[in-house]
Specification:
4 domains, 21 strands, Calcium-transporting ATPase, cytoplasmic transduction domain A, alpha/beta
Length: 888
C-alpha cells in the first residue's frame, strides 16, 4: 500500500499500512449458509457464484431473499432452521456435571482409593471420614465454578446488542425498519449500518455512502478499511473484498444497507471458533499435576511399606492395615481441593464485586498471579483509537504554530463545504488542537475533499483584507503534496528526509502547502509553496502509564504484539515509560525456527506486523522459555493466541467468540483491572503455596516419626482413630489459610508453584519436624518411666505434641502470620491457638477417654515446652535461610 492510501486525509501510515496477512482464501466457506437457505442448494458455494465474486442477483438467489427484506414468517422459519445468531459456545455445565468433574482431581482419586481400601477391611470409621472429606471438597469446588458461570451468563445478558433490520408483515406489505436483538437475525435479513454500529453478522453491501469499518478484530490492523457496495474484489481473499463486512468489525464512518449472508457458526467468527482445539494445560494445572504425582506415589507406597515392615520386624499382619491407611491419609493433603477452591472463589468474588472482573475459570486466578509476561496489543490497550497532534514544523524542522492553523482551517472548511457527515480521525485531531481563531480567520470559498487517488484535500479560502485574492490550502500525504510544490530536486529530497525521520519516530505525518490565486480561478494544485509538516501520534490510554508501572513493580514484563508499524508501537512504549529491549518484525519472525524464536522472544519487547499466527507463535515461544504468559485480546484474530496462553483475558466488548474463550473478562479494556487481578491471584496463590508448604512438611515429619515409632515400639504408636481425629483437627485449622493475608513481599513476585522447590522445602522442614517428634519419644520415656508401660499415656502424649507442633508450624511458616510487619494476629494465629488448646485439653476430656487417651503427668508439659522451644528456634533459623536463598 502506498503512503496515505486508505487514510481519509492522506497521512503517511506510519502506524500500519496494509492489512495483516491472515485473511482466508477466496474459496473459504464463510458464506456456506447462504446456499443452504435455498431448498434446492447442495451445500456448495454456487449460491454466491462459487465464492465472493457473485453479483447481487446471485446473492439474493442463493439466499432466497430480496432487497425489500424478509417477511416475518420467513424470518421465523429460518430462525428455527439456522438457530440463534450467536457465537457457538459450549453450554455452561450444570452443577451436577461440575461436581462429577471435580472427582477427577488427583488427590480426590487417591482419597477415594484409600476409602475403598478402608471399607474393604471393615474400617468403617476411616472410610466414613475419608468419604466426608471427598464430598465437602467436591461440593465447594462445584459451587465456586457454578457461581462463576452464572456471573459470566449475567455479563453476556448485559452486553446483548440490537440491530436495525428491514422486514415485512407479509408478501405484499411495505418494509418496516425496526430494532431487534442481534441473536434474532437470519440469513436474508436486510440490515442498516451507521457510524459506531457493530456489524451484527457477515453481510453483503447493497448500498453504501462513505463507508469505512474497523477490522482490527479480524486482521489486527488499526486503520479503518474502506468498503463500497460497488467495489471490485481484489487479491487477499474474501476478508479484503470491499463489498463484504464481517461480524466482529465496527463502522468507523459512513452508512450502508446490507443483506445478511451468514449468521452464528457460519460466520467468520464461528469458523475461527471451530478451528481452535482444546487449550494446553495452564501453569497452575501443570504445577498441581507435578505436586500431585509426587505425593500420590508416596501415598500409594506407604500402606504396603508399613505392612511389610511390621510383618517382618514385629510379626504383625493385616491388623495393621487400618493404621497403614491412616498414615497414608495423614500424608495426603486432603484439604487441598477445598482450600484451593475456597481461595480462588473468594478472590474471584472480590474481583467481580470491586473491579468488574469476571473469572470464568477459577484456576485462571492462580495463573494470572503466577504470570510474569503479559502480551497486549497497542491500539485500545496502550493507546486509544484516535490520533492527537504532536508538533507543527516549518520547512526547516522548527516549531511553527501557523502550519497547524492552516491545516486546521483546511480540515474545517473541507467539513463545511464538502458537506461531510463528520470529520475523519486525523481532521478531528487537527480541529481539537487548533484554537478557535484559526478556524474563523478565513472565509471558505470551495473545497476539494480527500481523494484516495490524489491522497490529499484542498480548500480555497478568502482572507479578510485582501480583495481579489484567494488562498489555496492543501494538506495530505507528504509525497503527494511535495509533488505539487515548486521545489528543486535537492529541496524536495531534503523535505522527504525530514518527513521520513518523523515517520521513523512512530509519528503520522501530514504535509501542508499553500498558493495565492486570483479570485475566480479554478483551484489548481500546482506550483504550491511548501509550508511545513504536522505530526500526529496515537492518543495514550489515560491509565496505561500508571498500570504499566504497577505491573513492572510486580515483576510482570509487558510485550506488545501488534499488527501496526513497529515505529508507532515503539513510540507508544516510549511515551508510556516502557523500556524497549528489542523490536521484531513479521518478516524476520518468519525466518526464525521455534528454538530461535524462543531465545529471541525473551529479549524482545515489540513484535510488529503480527498476524494471528505470529501472535500464537510468540506466545508459545514465551511459554517454552519457562514463562507464565497472559494474553489480552479482543478480536477474532486474537483467539488462537488467547487460547495458547496460560491465561487469556478479554474485555466485555470483545468479539463474542473471544470473550467466550477468555479465562478473565474485564468490564473495560484497562490494564489497571489486570493489575487488580494479578494482586488477587497472588493473594490466593500465596495462601495455597503456604498451605502446601506447611501441611506437607508437617505431614511428612509425622509420617516419618510414625513409621519409625511403629518399628521401634512393641505397640502401635497411635491408634487409627486417634490418627484420623488428629488429621481432622488439623484439616479444620487449615481452612484459615484461605482467609489469611500474605505479606506485601509475596505480592511483588509471581506466585509460582514449583514442584521441585516445594519438594526441597517439605523434605527439609519435614525432617526437622520428625526430629522434634522423635525427641518427644525421649521426653515420654523420661516422664512416663518407659513408654512401653502405659500405651494410653504414650498415645496421649504424642497426640498432644503433634497438634502443638503443627500449631507452631502454622504460625511461624505462614506468610501472613501475626507479628509480621507489626500487624494484629490474623485468622491463622487464632486458629493455631484453638488447635493447641484442642491438643492440650482433649486427652483429659471424656471424648479423649473414648478415643483411648488419658490425662498426662505435669512433668511432661514442662519437658514438652522445652522441646517446642528448641523446635521453634530451628524453624526460625531454617526459614531465614530459605527466605535469603534466591527464589526461596
Amino acid at each position: 500500500m502506498e503512503a496515505g492510501a486508505g487514510t481519509p486525509d492522506g497521512s503517511r501510515p506510519a502506524d500500519g499500512s496494509g492489512p495483516a496477512d491472515g485473511s482466508p482464501s477466496p474459496g473459504r466457506p464463510v458464506l456456506r449458509v447462504v446456499t443452504t437457505v435455498d431448498a434446492g442448494a447442495d451445500g456448495g458455494d454456487e449460491g454466491l457464484g462459487g465464492g465472493s465474486d457473485g453479483s447481487l442477483l446471485q446473492v439474493f438467489r442463493g439466499l432466497g431473499a430480496g432487497p425489500r427484506g424478509l417477511t416475518e414468517a420467513q424470518a421465523e422459519e429460518r430462525s428455527a432452521r439456522f438457530g440463534a445468531n450467536v457465537v457457538p459456545a459450549g453450554r455452561d455445565p450444570s452443577w451436577p456435571r461440575l461436581f462429577a468433574r471435580s472427582l477427577r482431581d488427583p488427590f480426590t482419586a487417591v482419597l477415594l482409593c484409600l476409602g475403598l481400601v478402608s471399607a474393604a477391611v471393615l474400617a468403617w470409621g476411616t472410610a466414613s471420614v475419608i468419604l466426608l472429606l471427598v464430598a465437602v471438597s467436591c461440593v465447594l469446588r462445584a459451587s465456586g465454578e457454578h457461581r462463576a458461570g452464572r456471573s459470566t451468563a449475567g455479563l453476556r445478558r448485559r452486553v446483548a446488542a440490537t440491530a436495525t433490520v428491514q422486514r415485512r408483515a407479509g408478501e405484499d406489505s411495505a418494509p418496516v425498519t425496526r430494532e431487534i436483538p442481534v441473536a434474532d437475525l437470519v440469513p436474508g435479513d436486510v440490515v442498516r449500518l451507521g457510524p459506531g454500529d457493530l456489524v451484527p453478522a457477515d453481510v453483503r453491501l447493497l448500498r453504501s455512502t462513505g463507508l469505512s469499518v474497523h477490522q482490527a478484530a479480524l486482521t489486527g490492523e488499526s486503520a479503518p478499511v474502506e468498503k463500497s457496495a460497488g467495489g471490485e474484489p481484489g487479491e487477499g481473499g474474501v476478508l479484503l473484498d470491499p463489498r463484504y463486512c464481517f461480524q466482529g468489525s465496527s463502522v468507523a464512518s459512513g452508512s450502508a444497507t446490507a443483506v445478511v449472508t451468514a449468521t452464528g457458526g457460519d460466520t467468520l467468527s464461528g469458523a475461527a471458533h471451530r478451528r481452535t482445539g482444546k487449550p494446553p494445560a495452564t501453569a497452575f494445572e501443570r504445577s498441581v499435576q507435578g505436586v500431585s504425582w509426587i505425593l500420590i506415589r508416596f501415598a500409594l507406597l506407604t500402606p504396603p511399606l508399613v505392612l511389610m515392615a511390621n510383618a517382618a520386624l514385629r510379626g504383625r499382619g493385616l491388623e495393621t492395615l487400618p493404621f497403614a491407611v491412616a498414615v497414608a491419609v495423614g500424608l495426603t493433603p486432603e484439604m487441598l481441593p477445598v482450600l484451593v477452591t475456597t481461595c480462588l472463589a473468594r478472590g474471584a468474588a472480590l474481583l467481580a464485586r470491586a473491579h468488574g472482573v469476571i473469572v470464568r475459570r477459577l484456576p485462571a486466578l492462580h495463573d494470572i498471579g503466577a504470570m510474569d509476561v503479559l502480551c497486549v496489543d497497542k491500539t485500545g490497550t496502550l493507546t486509544q483509537d484516535r490520533p492527537v497532534v504532536h508538533r507543527a514544523l516549518d520547512a526547516d524542522g522548527h516549531d511553527d504554530p501557523e502550519v497547524l492553523r492552516r491545516a486546521a482551517a483546511a480540515a474545517w472548511w473541507s467539513l463545511q463545504l464538502a458537506e461531510l457527515p463528520a470529520p475523519d480521525a486525523l481532521d478531528e485531531a487537527l480541529l481539537a488542537a487548533a484554537d478557535e481563531d484559526a478556524l474563523t480567520a478565513y472565509d471558505g470559498v470551495t473545497a476539494l475533499p480527500f481523494d484516495p487517488v490524489r491522497r490529499l484535500a484542498t480548500v480555497v479560502v478568502r482572507t479578510p483584507g485582501r480583495p481579489g485574492r484567494h488562498t489555496l490550502i492543501t494538506k495530505g500525504a507528504v509525497e503527494a503534496v511535495l509533488a505539487r510544490c515548486a521545489l528543486s530536486d535537492d529541496e524536495r529530497s531534503r523535505l522527504r528526509g525530514l518527513a521520513d525521520a518523523q515517520a521513523a519516530d512512530g509519528l503520522r505525518v501530514l504535509a501542508v502547502a499553500t498558493a495565492e490565486r486570483p479570485a475566480g480561478d479554478r483551484p489548481r494544485e500546482r506550483g504550491l509553496t511548501f509550508r511545513g509538516l504536522v505530526t500526529l501520534r496515537d492518543d495514550l490510554a489515560p491509565t496505561a502509564a500508571e498500570a504499566l508501572a504497577g505491573l513492572a513493580a510486580r515483576g510482570v514484563t509487558v510485550k506488545v504484539l501488534t499488527g501496526d508499524h513497529p515505529g508507532t508501537a515503539v513510540r507508544a512504549c516510549r511515551d508510556l515509560g516502557v523500556p524497549v529491549a528489542g523490536v521484531l518484525g513479521a518478516d524476520r519472525l518468519d525466518t526464525l525456527t521455534d528454538p530461535e524464536l524462543t531465545e529471541l522472544a525473551r529479549r524482545t519487547t515489540v513484535f510488529a506486523r503480527c498476524t494471528p499466527e505470529h501472535k500464537t507463535r510468540v506466545v508459545r515461544a514465551l511459554r517454552s522459555a519457562g514463562h507464565t504468559v497472559g494474553f489480552l485480546g479482543d478480536g477474532v484474530n486474537d483467539l488462537p493466541a488467547l487460547r495458547t496462553a496460560d491465561v487469556g483475558v478479554a474485555p466485555r466488548d470483545a468479539a463474542g467468540v473471544t470473550r467466550e474463550n477468555a479465562d478473565l473478562v474485564l468490564a473495560e479494556k484497562d490494564l489497571t483491572a489486570i493489575g487488580h487481578a494479578v494482586a488477587a491471584g497472588r493473594h490466593a496463590g500465596g495462601n495455597i503455596a503456604t498451605y502446601l508448604r506447611i501441611t506437607l512438611s508437617s505431614n511428612l515429619g509425622n509420617v516419618i516419626a510414625m513409621l519409625s515409632a511403629g518399628l521401634l515400639l512393641p505397640f502401635l504408636p497411635m491408634l487409627p482413630a486417634q490418627v484420623l481425629v488428629q488429621n481432622l483437627c488439623f484439616d479444620a485449622a487449615q481452612l484459615a489459610f484461605a482467609h489469611d493475608r500474605p505479606a506485601p513481599s509475596a505480592l511483588r513476585r509471581p506466585s509460582v508453584l514449583d514442584p521441585r522447590r516445594l519438594l526441597r522445602f517439605i523434605v527439609g522442614f519435614g525432617a526437622l519436624n520428625a526430629v522434634a517428634d522423635l525427641a518427644t519419644f525421649g521426653v515420654l520415656a523420661f516422664a512416663l518411666r518407659g513408654p512401653g508401660d502405659d500405651e494410653t499415656l504414650f498415645h496421649s502424649g504424642w497426640f498432644t505434641e503433634n497438634l502443638l507442633t503443627q500449631a507452631v508450624v502454622m504460625v511461624l511458616l505462614s506468610l501472613g502470620s501475626a507479628g509480621r510487619g507489626g500487624r494484629r494476629p490474623g485468622p491463622v494465629t487464632w486458629t493455631a491457638a484453638a488447635l493447641a488448646a484442642t491438643g492440650l485439653l482433649l486427652p483429659m476430656s471424656p471424648p479423649g477417654a473414648a478415643l483411648g487417651m488419658s490425662a498426662l503427668p505435669g512433668v511432661y508439659y514442662g519437658l514438652l515446652a522445652a522441646v517446642l522451644a528448641l523446635y521453634a528456634l530451628g524453624l526460625l533459623a531454617a526459614r531465614r535461610r530459605t527466605d535469603d536463598r534466591p527464589g526461596g
